[in-house]
């Protein structure tokens, strides 16, 4: 099985980048290949740009999603929702509409999680991301990862400090792997 990971933060030392790396590492330990895919150089979605020809970086992004069995999204919450850049990347990947099934179809599973600097742990981002992913036809893993107080969540090696956070990640990854296995049969 193969999984792609998408980080919703552009910050170099992002808590969500640390979370994504930790999830991909945990998946690798369970025999599942994973790689982070990037959207940072996408311009704003425009029908005019799409009509002139899909940008090559967008096509490469879409192809990696299409080849994956699952998607891991680790994202902060901006203004009680999904960061604009991440939403833009998803908008690009969903175009043209004729490609939607090719890119997101086939019982592809989404694991959604995030780390916030506050105490809510990206719960509202997850709710909005579930709506977006559901509309794309993704199967949403019911287990989530919502980690609060990001500045205190990781040690210098990028490992989670609190046992409750470790249990949350391991439990969500186990559920994700189980769901990937069931839907791949």
Task: Give a description of the structure.
The structure is a single chain. With 185 residues, this protein is α/β, with parallel strands linked by helices. The chain has helices spanning 15-29, 47-52, 56-67, 84-93, 100-104, 123-136, 150-153, 163-184, and strands at residues 2-7, 33-36, 70-74, 109-115, 139-140, 145-147. Strands 1, 2, 3, 4, 5 and 6 form a six-stranded parallel sheet that branches. Strand 1 (2-7), helix 1 and strand 2 form a beta-alpha-beta unit. The radius of gyration is 16 Å and the shape is globular. The termini are close together.
* Envelope shape: globular
How would you name the CATH homologous superfamily? Flavodoxin domain
Described by strand count, sense and barrel closure, the largest sheet is: 6 strands, parallel
Cα(first) to Cα(last) distance is 11 Å
What class, by secondary structure content? alpha/beta
Strand content: 5-15%
Secondary-structure topology with pairs:
Elements: E1 2-7, H1 15-29, E2 33-36, H2 47-52, H3 56-67, E3 70-74, H4 84-93, H5 100-104, E4 109-115, H6 123-136, E5 139-140, E6 145-147, H7 150-153, H8 163-184
Parallel strand pairs: 1-2, 1-3, 3-4, 4-5, 4-6
Task: Name some characteristics of this structure.
single chain; 185 residues; alpha/beta; Rossmann fold; 6 strands; 15% strand; globular
Summarize, please.
With 185 residues, this protein is of the alpha/beta class. It is built from eight helices and six strands, in the order E-H-E-H-H-E-H-H-E-H-E-E-H-H.
